[in-house]
Design brief:
The protein is an alpha+beta fold and about 230 residues long. It contains 12 helices and 6 strands.
């Protein structure tokens, strides 16, 4: 009897194996968290390679990296769990950068990166608005003497940022609230100060691979650094 039962169980093993569903693969592109350093990280928190970018939304070189580098970075490295990517603010252009940083963070964690991509894609339009404003230097000088919240709001209004973020689903009332948020302003200021003082960031984009600052400002130079680190 025991022999017959054992034979039956062995015969059923292949059936159980066939019916077993494969373990679901993590969608690392939707794994986004705020970090203690004030950044936003996308990807596997236990990735072997941790990439950090100090970036500016008004920096043309950062804009080119967003256009040329982010798709292969996400498709080949972040989605596969090999690399995590963290974006931290470094405001190389002052008030316009602060306004965009506050508005980008205002959309929430899960929308942060899609809106960051959209802001970079719209960078030429923001630049046109800023060039127009620079024709009235007295006005700009007056704005730059305002407290940070008021200064950021003036630039956001006159550079079309509030209107643009509305196309990304951010209501105007919420946008204005975020532009005046003292805690958000302080958090961004701390990220900036830590970048300069602790990590010796002096321009954008600045990339760190597993804590090491690398001499790379574009995707063709950054990708070999990721591979050398084990990605």
């Amino acid at each position: 009897m025991m022999q017959r039962l054992l034979t039956l169980m062995l015969a059923l093993v292949p059936l159980f194996a066939l019916g077993a569903a494969p373990a679901p693969q993590a969608n690392w592109l939707t794994t986004v968290v705020e970090t203690p350093e004030g950044g936003y990280r996308q990807g596997n928190p236990n990735a072997a390679v941790k990439l950090v970018e100090y970036g500016s939304r008004t920096c043309p070189t950062c804009g080119r990296f967003a256009e040329e580098g982010m798709k292969p970075l996400r498709d080949q490295y972040i989605a596969t769990g090999k690399v995590s990517y963290e974006y931290r603010d470094f405001l190389v252009h002052g008030a316009p950068d602060l306004a965009l940083a506050l508005l980008n963070q205002c959309v929430g964690t899960q929308r942060f990166f899609p809106v960051l991509d959209a802001i970079y894609a719209n960078q030429p339009q923001f630049e046109e608005k800023l060039i127009a404003l620079e024709k009235t230097p007295a006005t700009l000088e007056a704005w730059q003497k305002l407290p940070p919240a008021q200064m950021a709001t003036r630039f956001a209004e006159n550079m079309g940022m509030i209107a643009f973020l509305k196309t990304q689903g951010l209501a105007e009332a919420k946008a204005r609230q975020c532009l005046a948020d003292p805690k958000a302003i302080a958090r961004i200021a701390k990220t900036q100060a830590d970048g300069a003082n602790l990590y010796k960031v002096d321009g954008t984009p600045s990339f760190f691979v597993n804590g090491r600052k690398v001499r790379a400002y574009s995707w063709p130079y950054l990708e070999p650094e990721l591979r050398a680190a084990g990605a």
